[in-house]
């Protein structure tokens, strides 16, 4: 069963290692590569003479594990293992291998009670931890910060830090302190998001100092921050408000599973010097200097209701129902035999993880011991190379100790038998040795900051212009109330006086009411629109039903909308039915198959000097003004964007060195039977209506109005940067790529002005659609400029 390391001085214990393991030595600790500790039934009895139950024995074994580990850490025993610095045994040198999560929790709690740092390793979900429940209690309190019951519950969490005595002493006055604090945190959550809330809680409640004073403080702190990151991800990816965030966390806690995804798996950054409590299954392939295997004596016999087994030909089989004379008991026996073999393989794994020493326990239970793998190995009476019986009679305590002692003599001291002594009422605590005092010094900042390197985006370049043009506050980060004024890339147009129509076309445009005239504005509405259009399958047989269903999916994540999926889906349908003009050869969005659409194309592209520091740069770095100069040189006088270079000069002349980032709403591939053309498409929900009471109509989205709106919002810059992103993407993806052939330009789809098949058309261009194809070579020249002249 065990590999053998070379024996040396009797006080040096060789490890029970497999042939491929690198053995180690443990000095000045109880000799024996294998220690078997016997928990007698008399010790486990309650003193009344009655037989102790298995739960009592398990609890005593867990406590004895903690006591033995404390003794080992206090003994001064030293390890000598290749790859590890020689020195005293540390908690991180020890692993406790268990069969179930319940056993792991039991041992973990026993270790923490003695002051030994310990962690539950493996793939347990972070949402199954106590810290997840504490976050849930806090979010409930922030949802109703002035409600006494939830506020006082939050006070008793580690996040706030009160104890029961303080809460009782405060009485009714507790809310005088808790109410304002929780209200402030709730405001931070709504306006600035989860990361800001976390920092506010950490500072106001002194969380770090309180947690790190505990034995398991680093683990709690890691779980706290991990859950905060998960909450922030839920807010940003699912666009949920504070109330929905509470429901989301509650659902994650309910659905927490032992085998979790990477997102949920508990992080182990702070676990380097703690006892690892891990299931045997997860320990396969690992090795530890010292291992404890406390529950290999415990196996409760069960008859499988649906036996699993291998048939005679090796086929994996599952018995579901008796048929044709099938015998359930026969299959149950086959199932039990295979389980018995698997138990032996599992205990083999557990007993061969140690490099220096393995400690295991044996106890006597009439039902749970006879089929336990360790009991079968020790008392099965089998010869080497034979497999022990599936069930082995249970010996008395005295007889078991006698048999184990005989084995110890035959093993030449490698197997040591120990009878567990009575456990004290108060467990001994381990006190880690004091660390040597560090010499502190003041850090010096000896480098210069490179202020010219940045991640460049359209929003970043134009933010200052929006702040000057649109006086409004920032939208709440996690709002549960209707949104106020916002700052985004879809500003409302300036009011236009409702003057009388001058011709029949204008009268027709004014008469065509916008399908979204009754829907609100703002960033949140734009996010909802983008989310629905990203998910919709415009090739569905019933496009309206598809829009309504996708709207229902998206709106279920928003708690503040004032419109329903039926109304919203119906208002979006005309946008899919509106012709897209000459640039798209009259196609509608619903005419472009899903396979020819690429939604939300994120890009992060290197600009000149993105991989260099300022001192290494040579030559001139492009800036906003150099883009304006290029456009002034390339755009003809009759181009709708001809006035734009002058507007671009008004922006801050920022250096464009680093990376260009952005996200294209939609890329359309149009194939007319020859070579495909690719178009950038961007959805806009801007409200370009006039004064209050003026009905929003197609006239507000006529081509001339859209040209003015494009220039005022600096959308030409956005479109050019998107075309550069698509241009570089196609260079790698489109065989035989030629910009003049494949790069078709851009469509800005002002959805409120797209009124369906009957949308008014001005000079061949439908209202609500602005299309632009750049002059030959402009996009390639701009790409070269941003790359510092490189191809």
Topology diagram in text:
Blueprint: E1 12-13, E2 25-27, E3 34-39, H1 41-44, H2 54-74, E4 78-80, E5 87-88, E6 94-98, H3 101-113, E7 118-120, H4 130-143, H5 148-155, H6 164-170, H7 174-192, H8 194-204, H9 207-212, H10 217-238, H11 242-255, E8 275-279, E9 288-293, E10 308-310, E11 316-318, H12 328-351, E12 354-363, H13 373-379, H14 397-410, E13 415-419, E14 453-456, H15 458-469, H16 504-511, H17 523-535, H18 543-555, H19 565-577, E15 597-606, H20 624-634, H21 644-648, E16 657-670, E17 677-684, H22 703-712, H23 715-733, H24 739-742, E18 743-750, E19 761-762, E20 765-766, E21 769-772, H25 778-786
Parallel strand pairs: 3-12, 3-13, 6-8, 6-9, 7-8, 9-12, 14-16, 17-18
Antiparallel strand pairs: 1-2, 2-4, 4-5, 10-11, 15-16, 16-17, 18-21, 19-20
Helix pairs in contact: 2-3, 4-5, 4-10, 4-11, 5-7, 7-8, 17-18, 18-19, 20-25, 23-25
In short:
This protein is α/β, with parallel strands linked by helices and 791 residues long.
């Amino acid at each position: 069963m065990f590999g053998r390391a070379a024996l040396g001085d009797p006080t040096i214990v060789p490890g029970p290692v497999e042939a491929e393991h690198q053995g180690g030595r443990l000095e000045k600790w109880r000799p024996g590569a294998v220690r078997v500790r016997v928990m007698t039934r008399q010790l486990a009895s309650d003193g009344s003479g009655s037989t102790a139950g298995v739960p009592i024995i398990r609890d005593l074994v867990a406590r004895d594990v903690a006591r033995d580990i404390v003794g080992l850490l206090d003994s001064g025993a030293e390890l000598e293992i290749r790859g590890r610095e020689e020195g005293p045994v540390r908690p991180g040198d020890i692993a406790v291998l268990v069969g179930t999560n319940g056993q792991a929790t039991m041992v973990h709690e026993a270790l923490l009670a003695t002051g030994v740092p310990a962690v539950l390793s493996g793939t347990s979900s972070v949402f199954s931890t106590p810290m997840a429940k504490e976050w849930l209690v806090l979010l409930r309190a922030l949802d109703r910060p002035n409600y006494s019951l939830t506020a006082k519950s939050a006070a008793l969490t580690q996040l706030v830090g009160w104890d029961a005595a303080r809460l009782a002493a405060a009485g009714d006055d507790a809310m005088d302190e808790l109410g304002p604090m929780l209200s402030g945190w709730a405001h931070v959550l709504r306006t600035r998001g989860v990361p800001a809330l976390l920092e506010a809680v950490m500072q106001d409640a002194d969380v770090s100092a309180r947690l790190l004073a505990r034995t398991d403080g680093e683990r709690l702190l890691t779980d706290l921050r991990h859950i905060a990151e998960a909450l922030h991800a839920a807010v940003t990816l699912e666009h949920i408000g504070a109330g929905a965030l509470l429901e989301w966390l509650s659902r994650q806690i309910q659905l927490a599973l032992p085998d979790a995804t990477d997102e949920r798996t508990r992080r182990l950054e702070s676990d380097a010097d703690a006892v690892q409590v891990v299931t045997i299954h997860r320990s396969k392939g690992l090795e530890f200097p010292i291992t404890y295997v406390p529950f290999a004596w415990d196996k409760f016999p069960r008859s499988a209701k649906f036996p699993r087994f291998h048939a005679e030909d090796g086929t994996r089989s599952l018995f579901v129902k008796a048929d044709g004379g099938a015998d359930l008991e026969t299959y149950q026996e086959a199932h039990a035999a295979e389980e018995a073999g698997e138990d032996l393989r599992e205990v083999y794994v557990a007993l061969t993880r140690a490099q220096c020493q393995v400690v295991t326990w044996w106890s006597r239970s009439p039902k749970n011991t006879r089929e336990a793998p360790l009991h079968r190995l020790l008392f099965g009476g089998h010869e080497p190379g034979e497999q022990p019986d599936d069930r082995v009679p249970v010996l008395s305590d005295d007889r078991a100790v006698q048999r184990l002692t005989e084995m110890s003599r035959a093993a030449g001291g490698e197997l040591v038998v120990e009878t567990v002594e009575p456990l004290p009422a108060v467990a001994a605590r381990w006190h880690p040795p004091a660390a040597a005092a560090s010499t502190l010094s003041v850090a010096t900042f000896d480098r210069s900051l490179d202020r010219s390197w940045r991640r460049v985006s359209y929003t970043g370049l134009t933010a200052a212009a929006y702040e000057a043009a649109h006086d409004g506050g920032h939208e709440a980060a996690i709002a549960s109330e209707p949104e106020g004024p916002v700052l985004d890339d879809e500003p409302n147009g300036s009011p236009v006086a409702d003057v009388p129509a001058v011709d029949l076309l204008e009268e027709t445009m004014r008469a065509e009411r916008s399908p979204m005239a009754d829907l609100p504005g703002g960033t949140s509405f734009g996010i909802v629109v983008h989310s629905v259009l990203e998910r919709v399958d415009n090739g569905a047989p019933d496009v309206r039903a598809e829009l309504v269903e996708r709207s229902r999916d998206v709106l279920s994540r928003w708690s503040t909308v004032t419109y329903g999926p039926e109304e919203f889906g119906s208002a979006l349908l005309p946008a899919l039915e509106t012709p897209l003009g000459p640039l798209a050869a009259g196609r509608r969005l619903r005419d472009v198959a899903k396979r020819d659409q690429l939604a939300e194309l994120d890009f992060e592209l290197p600009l000149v000097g993105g991989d260099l520091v300022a001192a290494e740069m040579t030559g001139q770095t492009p800036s906003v003004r150099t883009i304006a100069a290029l456009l002034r040189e390339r755009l003809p006088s009759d181009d709708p964007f001809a006035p734009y270079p002058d507007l671009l000069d008004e922006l801050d002349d920022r250096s464009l060195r680093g990376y260009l980032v952005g996200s294209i709403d939609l890329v359309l591939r149009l194939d007319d039977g020859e070579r495909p053309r690719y178009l950038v498409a961007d959805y806009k929900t801007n409200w370009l209506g006039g004064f209050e009471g003026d009905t929003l109509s197609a006239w507000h989205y006529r081509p001339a109005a859209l040209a003015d709106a494009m220039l005022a919002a600096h959308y030409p810059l956005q479109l050019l940067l998107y075309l550069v992103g698509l241009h570089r993407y196609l260079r790698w993806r489109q065989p035989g790529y030629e910009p003049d052939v494949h790069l078709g330009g851009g469509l800005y789809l002002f959805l409120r002005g797209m009124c369906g098949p009957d949308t008014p058309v001005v000079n061949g261009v439908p209202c609500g659609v602005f299309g632009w194809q750049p002059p030959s070579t402009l996009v390639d020249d701009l790409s070269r400029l941003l790359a510092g002249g490189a191809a």
